[in-house]
Design a protein that fits this description.
The protein has 443 residues and is of the alpha/beta class. 35% of the residues lie in helices and 22% in strands. It contains 15 helices and 16 strands. A hairpin with a 2-residue loop joins strand 5 and strand 6.
């Protein structure tokens, strides 16, 4: 009987790899928690000694060897691994740092580790003193575009889910943690999608939205119903920024009288409404067509910079978008960029632009920013609250989705004059405010 069933062995042997391939293709997440986990664990642990030596992570030490005669020999000691855990996209493992090692030693070896472990990428996540955590992804989470989730009641104040990080974690902007954001990228790289996502998810929240759009208002006009104020000319921009400075000084006085350092320490009854101001194509604010605009540009630069310097504690947040934010636009834009901690760099046309966006915060991310392909709009390199850089991809949020949200929640837009309550009949010029004294009082 046994020889009679041998005919079934070849089909069964062929079915196993075919089934495994189908499983891996149609359900990579469950594969990561099953056979993929076993295979990865065996590969990592069985080859770790050679991989650590090849990546320069082993520690060289002297050891006394007795066999064949007492003598001192040099041996390589590999780092100890622990806590091998699966993730939806791959696995995570902790490595013990040798004496004298830092996480930067592992950061330099990430590409080599990815090739050795046969994965798409490896990212470093510091776990604590003496340990680092390595997150490996078998497939790129940014390879597919997902649509933004429908709006619901589960929002958190001043938090916006932009998309997904290369680690598979959600890409979230938290204005209370990082108050100001700079979005840079070439045409059709994904800047508009980011702004759509901001309007779409901030619309149902109890915040005020304002906009500066010197491209004739074509970018932000569809969201006018949810915006408390939209400026489309240089004079209107100066007026809007004047109003923000008035809010700033009023909120400073309110916090000083209450004996607190920021508006979040005030009770909800007296806490002012947070304001998120979106600046589209910031270069238009600094470009000069003739000398008659010099004073307005200087004033705009001063007011915008002051808002970036002092606005965080008083609920005034900035989102600055543009194709280029460099010193060629003047010292004002360079000073503004220095005050903005959050960075998002989409595909750019030259390395200098990428350096403007990321060079001062994450110089090791420049190569990743320059490798973003044109056929993957929405992919960006971002630096956020933890100070590390990540590749990320925004969820698809169309202009229609943002416009519908703006219309649906138009009743949530506070009246701009009410926000600027108590101001004098004439706007106080920015250069007459003793900013140094105000900063010292708030300190």
């Amino acid at each position: 009987m046994f020889p009679e069933i041998l005919w079934a062995v070849p089909p069964a042997a062929a079915a196993v790899p075919l089934s495994a391939a189908a499983w891996h293709h149609w359900s990579p997440t469950t594969w990561s928690y099953g056979p993929g986990l076993v295979g990865s664990a065996l590969r990592v642990h069985l080859t770790w000694e050679h991989v650590a030596q090849g990546c320069g992570l082993s520690h060289t030490r002297r050891k006394t060897k007795v066999k064949g005669g007492v003598r001192r020999v040099t041996v390589e000691k590999k780092p100890r691994l622990s806590r091998f855990r699966p993730t939806p996209y791959g696995f995570r493992v902790r490595a013990r740092l040798h004496d004298g090692q830092t996480p930067d030693d592992y950061a330099e070896a990430l590409t080599r580790l990815a090739h050795a472990w046969r994965v798409d990428s490896v990212r470093l996540r510091t776990s604590g003193p003496g340990w680092v955590e390595l997150a490996a992804s078998r497939r790129d989470p940014l390879g597919t575009v997902t649509s933004a989730s429908p709006l619901g009641g589960g929002w958190e104040l001043l938090k916006v889910r932009m998309g997904v990080l290369e680690t598979g974690d959600p890409w979230v902007i938290d204005f209370r943690a990082v108050p100001h954001w700079l979005i840079m990228g070439a045409t059709q790289s994904g800047k508009s999608t980011d702004i759509n996502a901001l309007v779409y998810q901030l619309a149902p929240q109890p915040v005020a939205l304002a906009g500066l759009d010197l491209k004739g208002g074509v970018e932000l006009t569809p969201y006018t119903r949810r915006m408390s104020k939209l400026a489309t000319t240089r004079a209107e921009c100066v007026g809007l920024l004047d109003d923000l400075m008035t809010m700033l000084t009023d909120r400073m006085s309110l916090c000083r009288e209450a004996g607190v350092r920021n508006i979040w320490q005030l009770s909800e009854e007296v806490r002012p409404t947070p304001v998120v101001t979106v600046v589209d194509e910031v270069a238009e604010l600094y470009l000069m067509t003739d000398k008659s605009e010099k004073d307005e540009i200087a004033r705009t630069s001063t007011l915008l910079l002051r808002n970036a310097q002092l606005g965080r504690a008083f609920g005034l947040y900035l989102v600055v978008a543009g194709q280029r934010v460099g010193s060629d636009l003047g010292p004002g834009v360079t000073a503004l960029r220095a005050q903005i901690t959050g960075r998002i760099c989409h595909r750019v046309n030259d390395g200098e632009t990428a350096k403007m966006a990321l060079g001062d915060l994450a110089p090791d991310s420049l190569s990743a920013a320059l490798k973003i392909p044109a056929e993957m709009p929405g992919v960006a390199v971002t630096v956020g609250a933890d100070g590390r850089w990540y590749r990320a991809r925004a969820d698809l949020t169309t202009e229609e989705m943002a416009e519908e949200a703006a219309a649906e929640y138009s009743h949530m837009a506070p009246d701009w004059d009410s926000l600027v309550s108590g101001r004098a009949e004439e706007t106080v010029p920015a250069d007459t405010v003793d900013w140094n004294r105000l900063e010292e009082e708030m300190a």
